[in-house]
Every structure is written in structure tokens, then in C-alpha cells.
Amino acid sequence: MAYIFEGFKQGIVLLFNLNGEVLAILKLSLAVSILATSIAVGIGLPLGSIIALKKFPFKKVIIALINTGMGLPPVVAGLLVALFLSRNGPLGFLQWLYTPKGMVLAQVIIATPIITGLSLAAVQSFETRFYQQILVLGATTRQSICILLKEIKLSILAAIIAGFGSIISEVGAVMMVCGNIRGQTRVLTTATVLETNMGNFDMAIALGLILLTMSFMVNLALTFIQQSRVKQQ
Amino acid sequence: MIKISNLKLDFPGRLTLVIDKLEIERGKVFTIIGPNGAGKSTFLNIIALFQKPDKGVIEIWGEDILNLKDKLVFRRKISFLFSRPYLLDETVYNNIALPLRLRGMRDYKAVDEMLDLFRIGHLKVNKARTLSQGEMHRVALARAFVIKPKLILLDEPFLSLDQTYKESLIDDLRGVIKLNEITALFVTQGQAEALTLADTIAVMKDGRILQQGNPQDIFTIPDSKEVADFIGVETVVEGLIVKKEDNLCFVKAGDKLLEVVSAYNEGDSVLVCIRPEDVIIAKHIDPSSARNHFKAKIIEIKPWGLEYKLNLYSGFNLVASVTKQSIRNLDLKIEDEVFAIFKATAIHLIKR
């Protein structure tokens, strides 16, 4: 038991004396996940909105596929990306394997279905009559989607945060796609795994605490958003 | 200006909307009344291009609107008011300016005009969603008219409003529509609203227009039992014209002989329609010009808005509306024997 307490003590000390390497890991983690979230929002938000609003054949099948994608095991995403990016894979020429770009790709694949699915649900929860009212006020499709998204901005924000939360804490896919190359592709999660395996519990605990803090902040933001919506109603 | 022909839309198992031919003149208010699920809203949805009919032609301003390349151009010439105001979470001013903004127009003078017209200038900077129901409806009206539409669709726009507010809103609405010669398609279940606002009324049921005409005719001379039922003729009794003297018909209904002014002939089978407000209740018969007076028994007394409705039996079932004061003055109770009196001109006959 003692070494756990000692680990925590050391970890917290480390946390307050963050060295350059840990800061670099934190920076890379945030940069990769924020970029991946932004791309996933760029794809998922319009996609989810359009699927929710338009009528087309096999709509239900598509929605079922997206819902499946929301629960896609990260290691499967990692495997897929690794296969595609490997030297002989179809995207091998990009030479993204073992680079932050590859990590972004893997995380985009994980986050996009989540953001698409949650945006889709949010848009669908919007009353048809309200949407029709916007259309008949003279809005183009683009204008009407903008107005609609503004109306449901809280749900959309929740979708974005959920997407971000799912990838910042993910370890399997980034490990598979990008290894854990020191100074290049080492992120909070993979570093934590490594330090644990090496028996450097104090460092692992420090990294874990950083991750936990970030996860807490994400959840705190989510809760605030949800609560402010309750107040609005 | 609106010409509809052979329109059909089938929702299997629920409703088939069929309109063979319908024309609406420019600047007129065409009101569709009918029970829930009659297809009234569906009809408006087709006009607003939210729903595509199975077949048919709708020509508006000489244009075949069902085969437009760009729905937006058509939609930007019309306005549509729903039963809920659907305002954005912004100021009143911004809500009313929205249709102009969406059209890329820079001149917002019309917004101030609308604020004045609908008497909501003082709410200009308020957040729209903090207003009362009635005020929100005024904002929705102002927003609908800010683009000076040539056609306005109204789908039960006053459903959730209380009576006094409704009346002032309808007055304003009628003023704007008439002043600007806007064509209006108005769907409602409220007969009072229909009477105030309509140039032409159509009664719709089960996807079909049963009867169409000017409001006075629809409400006084329905041509079928279904229309009579819907417009509040509560007494509809089968009868037979047994004798005719000049234009006065003697109609046998139940065990009673009614005197009715009608153009129908001896031997015709008819439905006798009597509106509840045309029936007078008395404890004793006064010397009255009313030709028909019968002893009747009160079966039920029920409140109806500010008045009461009496269900009577007098050889046939008869419904009368009376004021609260009459109930008190005449001391009316269930099981009482009273006289039901109505004029020969108050009865409308439908030939069967």
C-alpha cells in the first residue's frame, strides 16, 4: 500500500513541477484531439443535420450505421487506420503512420460518428413545424440549418464535448496507429500506459491526474450546459 | 389567382384528400372549417410545398407551383402562420426583421411599420420568448406581414389564445388583409373566427369539401347533415312534408307537426335543422309570432361557454341555448315541462 501513497505524493509533486517533456505531451494531446474534434465537427454537424432533415431512401439504415459507429471500439478504428496507412496500404503513400497526422485521422474516425449521431438526434428533436416556419419565412437550406443549429446550440455543444471526451481519453487506436514515440507521438494516454509498464508509478499517476482533470473539466462543462438548459425551460 | 384541379393525396388508412376543383380570387379570405383530421392542414402543407400530392395541378399567379425548379422563389412570396408563434430566441425587432434579413434586404423600415400596426412597438427590444402568448402571436403576425406577402396561409393561428385577445388580433389581421388585398387561406375549427374573417367558407371532412359558399349561407342553410352537425345545428330530425300552403310547409317530425317556410314540396323527405339559439324556452305560452310551440321535457342542462344548453324531448330531441339569467328567472330544472318555441323561418330543411 505504501508505494501507492508514495506514488501519489510523488505524482502530485511532479504535477506542480511539470517538466518540459510532460508539457510537450500535454500540448500534443490537446493539439491532436482539438484538431480531430474540429474536423469531426466539420463533417458530423452538417452530415447529422442533413440526414435528420432530408428524406431519402435507406435513411433508417444510414442512421443505424451511424449509431453503430458511435459505439465503434477504438481499437477497431485503430486497426482500420493502421491497415490503410501501412506502407502497402491504400493510403500508405501519405506516410502518416507513426505521425501525429495518423493520430488525428484515427481520432476523427472515432469522434465523427459520435458527433454526427448526437447532432442528428438534436436536430431531429427540433419540431418539424418550427423548421417549416423557418423555411417559409424565406430561408435557403443553408440559412435554415444555421438558424436551427443556433436554436439547438446547447445540444450541439454537448455533442462536441462528448466527441472530444471520447478521443482525449482514448489509448488503443493512437497506440496502434502511432506507437508511442517519445517527443513525436507520445500523448497523455500512451505515456501513462508506458510509465505504468515501466513501474514509474509516480509519473503515471501525474499523467493520470492530468487526464482526470481534463476529463473532469469536460464533464463540468457538460453539466453546466445541461443545467443552464434546465433553467431555460 | 389560385386555381386547383384534380388534387389528390392519399395517406393509406388515414386520409385521402381530394379536391376536384377550387378557385380562389385575389384579395379574398378563403376559410376552411372542419373537424380534426379533415385534411385542412394537409391542404395548406401542399400549398406551402411541404407535402407533394399524388396528382393534381395548383396554379398560383399563373404558375404551376407543384413543378417549380426553385421552391424558395415561391415561398418568398407567401407567409404561413401556425398555431404556435415559433419565435427565435432573440429580440422582438430581430424576429420581425428575420424575413427581410433572410432575403438579404437592407431596408428595415417595414419592421417599424409592423411594430406600429400590431401595436407592439413598446416591446421592440424585449426578448421574444419572454412575452405573453398573445404578444408572441402579435410578433408572429408582424413577422408574417413584414414582407408584404401576396398570399398568406393561416393554420389555426389563434388556437391557444383567450377570447378577448383573439378578437382584437382577428380585427387587426382582417384590417391588414383587406387593406393590402392579400389573399388568405385560413384553416380553423372556430366558427366565430370563420364568420368574422371569411369571404368564402368551405366545410371539409374526411379530405373532401362538403359545401362551399358565403358564410351566411353555410351557417344558415347547410346542404347536408354532416355540414349541419359541424356548424352547430344541434337539432337535426328526420321529417316528411305532409302539406304545403303557399310557401309554408307542414312537416311531420316524430309525433309533431312543424310549420316551416321552405321551397320544398309536399311528399318530400327532409331533415329538419334547428339552431339552438333559435329556440326560445318559456314556462307559459305568450302570444307570439312563432308558429311552432311544443311542450317539452328538460332532459339535461349543461354549461356552454357563458350560456347553457338544454337537451329537451318533445317527441324528438331538441337542443336550445339559454342564458344563465333565463335559467334563474324561469327556475329551470331537469324533468321540468316547458314550452319550446321557434319561428317558421328559423327552421332549415335539407332534402334527403
How would you characterize this protein structure?
The complex is a heterodimer of chains A (233) and B (352). Chain A has eleven helices and no strands. The mean pLDDT of chain A is 89. Chain A has helices at 2-16, 20-53, 59-70, 74-85, 100-124, 128-136, 141-151, 153-168, 172-178, 188-198, 201-232. Chain A is mainly α and 233 residues long. Chain A is globular, with a radius of gyration of 21 Å. In chain A, helix 1 (2-16) packs across helix 11 and helix 2 crosses helix 8. Chain A starts with a helix and ends with a helix. Chain B has two domains: 2-229, Rossmann fold (3-Layer(aba) Sandwich), CATH 3.40.50; 233-351, Beta Barrel (OB fold (Dihydrolipoamide Acetyltransferase, E2P)). Chain B contains ten helices and 20 strands. Chain B has helices at 40-47, 71-75, 92-102, 109-117, 133-145, 163-179, 191-197, 215-220, 225-230, 324-330; strands at 2-11, 15-24, 29-33, 55-60, 63-64, 78-81, 151-155, 183-188, 200-205, 208-213, 235-245, 248-253, 256-261, 269-274, 280-282, 292-304, 307-313, 317-323, 337-342, 347-351. In chain B, helix 3 (92-102) runs parallel beside helix 5 (133-145), helix 4 packs across helix 5 and helix 5 runs parallel beside helix 6. The interface between A and B is medium-sized, with 16 and 19 residues.
Counting H and I runs of at least 4 residues, what is the number of helices of chain A? Answer: 11
Tell me, what is the CATH class of chain A? Mainly Alpha
Please name the CATH topology of chain A: MetI-like fold
Named at the architecture level, the CATH assignment of chain A is Orthogonal Bundle
Question: How does the helix and strand content of chain B classify structurally?
Answer: alpha+beta
Ends of chain B: how far apart? 36 Å
Estimate nothing, just give the exact number of structural domains of chain A.
Answer: 1
- Shape descriptor of chain A reads globular
Cα radius of gyration of chain A in angstroms: 21 Å
For this structure, what is the CATH homologous superfamily of chain A?
MetI-like
Strand content of chain A: under 5%
Specify the biggest β-sheet of chain A.
Answer: none
